[in-house]
Amino acid sequence: MLRVQRVYKRFGRLEALKGVSLTLRPGEILGLLGPNGAGKTTLLKIILGLLLPEKGEVLLVEGERRHQPQGHEFGVLMEGSRNLYMNLSLLENALYFGGIRGLSPHSMRPRFEAWLERFGLMNRLHSPLASLSRGMQQKGALALALALEPRFLLLDEPTLGLDPMSRRELEEILLGLKRKEWGVLLTSHDLRTVEQVSDRVAFISKGEILREGKTRALLSEWAGEGYRLRLGEPVGERVVRLDPRFLLEGPDRLVFLGDWEGLKPLLPQLEGRVLEISRGVPSLETLFMNLVGKEQGNPAPNT
Amino acid sequence: MFWQLWSEVILDWALRKRYWFDELAGLLGSILYFYAIILGLSNLSPGSEAGLDLGPLLMVFVAFNLTVATFQSIAYTVQSEVGRGTIEHLALARGGLLRQLLIRAFVESLSGLLWAFFTLLPLALLLKVELKPTFWWPLGFLPLFLSSLGFALGMGAIAIYFKRVDGFFTIVQFLFLPYFFSLVRFESWMVHLPFAPAVHLLRLSFTGESLPLGLMGIAFVQSFLFLAAGLGAMAWVYALVRRKGILGEY
């Protein structure tokens, strides 16, 4: 189990992390969600040992044994194009980065080719990375991180640049990793993917974990019984201020977190603009926007 | 560790193969550079080259090339990896960044040694210099290599903090050239100067001299001091940049 314990990190006057604690178990996918600058990448780098925290520690706990993890024990996908050498081919990259983590070409090559096959990139095995599209580069970097066969995989924005088909493929791959007892820490702004694959989610904002829990439990805890409302015209935040149980899901869409008896007296105040009411719970994106948005002083989304 | 070493060998080969034109031009440039110095001396003051002992001069030039290639290997690795944004992946190598940089410097120094041979051979033929390598020549090479590695780590520490260091390295290189050439006329008091005993030992190992044990001892002590200082500097700066969060910043 990977355990992050009360980690503090400061950059000058900026408190990037304020006592963050997390656990990641084998066979589990943890979604780390937060707005830009919330501290997600800082936390990932501290786990990898690329940043040293002021306080707190990161531990790998295996039964009675606990130790500070080394960077090579993780499979990593960094955000952006910072994962591979642009002037080398996919294969050369894989053999090099596998090699510096102590893996022989004989073990690395078949694993890498198998993942590349799954991503439909085998015909580009010998192509220089610079000749590939952004999405292909991302798939290559993902294939490399997976081919290292780590027990823990840290993915920073893995869906960046991926087309919808590849995103779906990645979701299936991630779900498959759970069966292999890999632990995956996933940060992404693609909340649909996070909702699809993660067992637990942690919301981070301004260096603090706001909420953490099982994805389904959080959704139902927030939602319980809920209703979706489609309105005839955009309503803005005025309606949300009517009652804290309203969440704005779009310009003309609301979610009400509560039962029918709670909603019924509020309907007249919507001044007859309700076109449609259906039972439903909010998406992870709605929860994220409302939870983190409030924390950021931006209480509701407008999309 | 074997596969880490192997990876660096393959990377070095892949890059040299891909940029073969630049490699050849660099080799030719190195030969022409030294030849131009000798040609310049003979044209500016005719007869002056006759007073020069070209054998030691050539060996010192080779030592200079080796030292510069080694010290640049780590520093330029850091600079280019930071520029490409891959330094953090290098830091995830088994054993960490410091070990991987040392392995890369070792591999690049071996390439440098091969390149030095390709520089030395045509120059020796061109200038009709007769070299007499002794059986102990690896002992003549080792202290210079270790000293260079220590110095390289120190330069790497500067690069890992300041990121772009070309200007500074040009200054160091220009200081090194006259310094190394002043070691051609080696005198006993020079034995305590940095690199001097190692350079002189390398020169003796290729001019058919017997192994001077005292000089070798001093050269090794100095090289280990260089190495320890370089390792210390690199480890300290590496911890500093990780505390400040500027490892991957360019």
Reconstruct the topology from this structure.
The complex is a heterodimer of chains A (303) and B (250).
Chain A: E1 2-11, E2 14-24, E3 29-33, H1 40-48, E4 55-62, E5 65-67, E6 74-77, H2 90-99, H3 105-118, H4 134-147, E7 152-156, H5 164-179, E8 183-187, H6 191-197, E9 200-205, E10 208-214, H7 215-223, E11 226-231, H8 237-242, E12 246-250, E13 253-257, H9 260-263, E14 274-279, H10 284-295
Parallel strand pairs in A: 3-8, 3-9, 6-7, 7-8
Antiparallel strand pairs in A: 1-2, 1-4, 4-5, 9-10, 11-13, 11-14, 12-13
Chain B: H1 2-18, H2 20-44, H3 54-84, H4 87-90, H5 96-126, H6 137-162, H7 166-182, H8 196-205, H9 213-244
Helix pairs in contact in B: 1-2, 1-5, 2-5, 3-5, 3-6, 3-7, 3-8, 5-6, 6-8, 6-9, 8-9
What's the short story on this structure?
The complex is a heterodimer of chains A (303) and B (250). In chain A, 33% of the residues lie in helices and 28% in strands.
Structure description:
The complex is a heterodimer of chains A (303) and B (250). With 303 residues, chain A is an alpha/beta fold. Chain A has helices at residues 40-48, 90-99, 105-118, 134-147, 164-179, 191-197, 215-223, 237-242, 260-263, 284-295; strands at residues 2-11, 14-24, 29-33, 55-62, 65-67, 74-77, 152-156, 183-187, 200-205, 208-214, 226-231, 246-250, 253-257, 274-279. The longest helix of chain A has 16 residues, at 164-179. Chain A starts with a strand and ends in an 8-residue tail after the last helix. Chain B is globular. Chain B is mainly alpha-helical and 250 residues long. The model of chain B has no long low-confidence stretch (mean pLDDT 84). At the A-B interface, helix 1 and helix 2 of A face helix 1, helix 4 and helix 9 of B.
